[in-house]
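Review box. Two proteins, two foldings.
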Amino acid sequence: MADYTSTYTKTTGNTVEASDFSTEFDAIETMSQTKVDETSGTLTGGTLTNCTGSLTNIEIDTIEDSNNNELLDFVATGSAVNNVQIRNNSTGNQPVIESVGESDIGLLLRDSNNNELLDLAPTASATAQVQISNGVAVASVAASGLTNATLNIDSAGTGNLVLNNTATGDVVWGSSRVARYGESSVTATTSGTSVIVGSIPDWAKKVRIVLNGVSHNASLSSSFDLRLGDSGGIEATTYDYTEFAASSYSNGTATEWTIYPATNESAVVLSGEINLCLSNSSINKWTISSQIGTAAGTAGMSMVTGGKALSGTLTQIQLFVTGGADFDAGNFIVYWER
């Protein structure tokens, strides 16, 4: 460390007082704590303030705050050639954080487990980029840099590209809402007289029920029926219908929709589709269009159309058999969409 030199000047009187020595010794102490060694370039302690000139080629491991907690931690890589550069800018222009060193090197952000969070990959001579903007009510991600820049969002390999809206709003494409889809698990019809699926979301506008080999075990006159329900439960009134089965038509109002009429043949196995559509949202009215046929047993087909207004939003459907029968085979699945 260079020698410390100071000239003491007595401004008044001829007597050197103890306080004068104390002032000078304080100056020496401060110098020894904050002096940058001219040979090694090491700051040995204290606070470096009000510096003039330039500090270059500084080696720093950690920057701490006033409570000695780490603010920034610098980790060295042997033979490193790429690094981060932070650059200020003029009025109206953004400050810049960029990678420098080799050509076409991006930036990589990792979490505390050393897992990659964001890989910013470069393209040589790129002219388009992604712009992320905040807003009063709408935040946006857009392509920018060119008048007609394209925004490309892609998955990797055989992975899916998912737009997931977990809130209650819509996914919108341009000025149109994007269709939303969902489905229940496969529900068995192998026992009991009734099966309920209660996972239909409140945004559903169409519901499709697909039967696969559904049958009952009775030799009695037992039909296959459907009811709808909301959060208040399954409703058993005012199902308007027109039905075609066994070469005859019937219509009216009932306590359910009979999707396949009474049969005393336990060998009858049903497959087909039941389609429900919300026709009037103000009264929660749903229309039905079903086509159910026999996959085994006596050949037959039943087609049903009609309507049902619920007291609330559709949330569940009930498939059941009547006349003392129990389900004994098959399954069904429920699909929904908006």
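Next protein.
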Amino acid sequence: MVYEKYLKSKNNRFIFAPSNSSGGFSNEAWDDFRAGEDWADTILFIGDTNKNSETAILFEKFLLQTEKPVVIARDAVDILINSSSRLLEKYNLTIIASFAQLQKIFSTIFYPKILTFSMQLSNLVDNLHKFTLTYPAEIITFHAEKFNSRKKRRSIFKPISCPKFPAEKNFANQNLERRNPSSHRSMADVESNQNRSSCHN
């Protein structure tokens, strides 16, 4: 209640749905879920709802009826593991799962492939390819320092690396030039040092 009062005083766009004694959403939150669905273009289930059956049932009920794009992440994946066989049939669903969570999903639906942390990336690609030919939901996971996304015949594989922000760099470079126009230090050195410090933080 303290957070609710604080947030309401700062921003009136928050909607607080009814909760249960476990700290998750109660069945009474259904109308608020539907109102949010009508307003939103895409829906994100980010988790942090506690793992209780009432919340899991509410989530499953909502996800099975909505046609809006939905993203499930973090421990929202865990609370819905037992509903995997039905939810994976939803074409509008994207599941962002850790590799361990993906293993649980495969096991829960008795998928005849075993995922291991030591497996080659090519083997994972092949397994996900066959998996998403059977189930229309999109799967995003991380393995072998690669970001992996798979939906039907479309695959994306990218290395996980330190992000670069050209716009911020250009702004910083302009300020540096204004303050010290006679400096002979190359901007390449500045950018290199910025990248190293931001990657190791």
